[in-house]
Write a structure and sequence with these properties.
The chain is of the alpha/beta class. The protein has 2 domains: 3-230 and 428-455, Aldehyde Dehydrogenase, Chain A, domain 1 (3-Layer(aba) Sandwich); 234-414, 3-Layer(aba) Sandwich (Aldehyde Dehydrogenase, Chain A, domain 2). It has 14 helices and 20 strands. The protein has helices spanning 23-42, 45-61, 63-74, 78-103, 135-148, 162-174, 189-196, 209-222, 244-256, 276-288, 310-323, 374-381, 397-404, 441-444, and strands at residues 3-7, 14-19, 106-111, 114-122, 125-129, 152-156, 182-184, 202-206, 226-229, 234-238, 266-272, 327-330, 345-348, 365-371, 386-387, 389-393, 411-414, 429-430, 433-434, 447-455. The strands form 5 sheets. The chain has a 7-stranded mixed β-sheet with strand order 12-13-14-11-10-16-17, sandwiched between helices. A hairpin with a 6-residue loop joins strand 1 (3-7) and strand 2 (14-19). The longest helix is centred in the N-terminal third of the chain and has 26 residues, at 78-103. The protein starts with a strand and ends with a strand. Nicotinamide-adenine-dinucleotide is lined by residues 129-134, 138, 156, 158-159, 188-189, 192-193, 196, 206-208, 211, 214-215, 229-232, 263, 360, 362, 388, 428, 433.
Amino acid sequence: MSTFSIENPATGATLRTLEADSPESVKTKLARARAGQSAWRARPLRERIEAIRRFRGAIERDKERLAAITTSEVGKPIAQSRNELNGLLGRVDFFLAESERTLAREEVMADGGMVELIEHEPLGVVANISAWNYPYFVGSNVFVPALIAGNAVLYKPSEHATLTGLALAEALHASGVPEDVFIPILGAGAIGAAVSDLPVDGIFFTGSYATGRKVAEAAGRSMTRVQLELGGKDPVYIADDVDPKAAAAGTADGAFYNAGQSCCAVERIYVHEAIADRFIEAFIEEVRGFKVGDPTDDTTYIGPLTRGAQLAVLEAQIADAKQKGATVALGGARLARPGHYFAPTVLTGVNGTMSVMREESFGPIIGIQRVKDDEQAVAAMNDTEYGLTAGVYTKDRARAERILSRVDAGSAYWNCCDRVSPRLPWSGRRHSGLGLTLSRYGILAFTKPKAWHLRSPG
Ligand code: NAD
């Protein structure tokens, strides 16, 4: 039996030590889930929807306790943990409202005695290997529609958000989702690898590109359906016709919210040279105003990084950028205090050869590059292996649409950024992922179609 510890990233203190799963226990859990799924699937859709409605009620009632759990193990500022829980309610509402219509049998032809129907059957048992940065969002994007559609779920929360994962399991079970239908699996990477080797009916992964590749390889070996929600290096272009102060406020929040640990955080800024000086000045002013501190304090905006190892990644990106000619306009180093704190950092004079403009930073750091026109902005925005989101700030919607239609990213933002909507498909291109969650399509992702060809006798 092996154990693992949950650390508070703000203090370094051990919060709890838990027993991890093993490759054997994971197989036993799959057998339980197989048995549980056939009974769950046989229940009327309305009953499954009602269980999720009770789950929503449980989350709403327990919001303060849940927010405190997440803040303790992820280090997310408490106000932002509460925001995530409020956002979760909105996402669940979408699935509650949309599932019945989306999962209904569709008659696509009726002619004489012949009828053609499409039925959306559940996949079966699906594995959900999850990330820590938005544990409520990235988990629920998968398990809520999966459960409603009649699947059983093997849920492996990130080792950095395990207590949150256990609290979600408790809430689902108390709401009428059987213990053999939603089964948590605990542990770190080795257990994630054991889960991706299981003969399940779908693997739904959220995490880094490096791990996503391994999961895709495992799924390829067994020809299992796989979805990957991976990282990003999301660009924003500030055109020359905007109010630099307003654009700076919006994009600084997009870059630094949750200490930059969002898959769709703004990770690169390109600014038109005509307003670059005013924009950079306003941006630095905005970031200077962010309060860094104890994540349990209601007024903290930037807390510690969740993983201590990421501090060295940020240091290496800054060293590389400086060596290639960038200027550290703000921050640039760890903070001398317990926990994984890094000073909010703004780099100027950057270019596309620097790792800070190429590799995901996942921290409170941003590079701002000047461009001479829209054409150069489009080329720079596309100069990446990632393709999650991209944004343009301009007064002119047609100009924004012209630019964004040429950027290879799953989501396009005009005068906004770092935004996810349950009504729209959430998908990454190339190294940012395969498949999608959210929207009607993100319900159908947990089903397989059965084509009915029905001919009446006589
Ligand atoms: P990670 O890849 O380190 O871990 C993700 C999950 O995979 C964890 O549960 C981990 O235990 C597990 N894992 C580790 N090694 C494994 C292996 N060999 N096989 C199978 N599973 C394994 O990622 P993370 O640090 O938890 O999350 C941060 C990353 O997630 C960032 O790149 C971020 O951009 C991305 N992310 C993407 C989205 C999206 O919607 N596109 C959302 C949130 C986070």
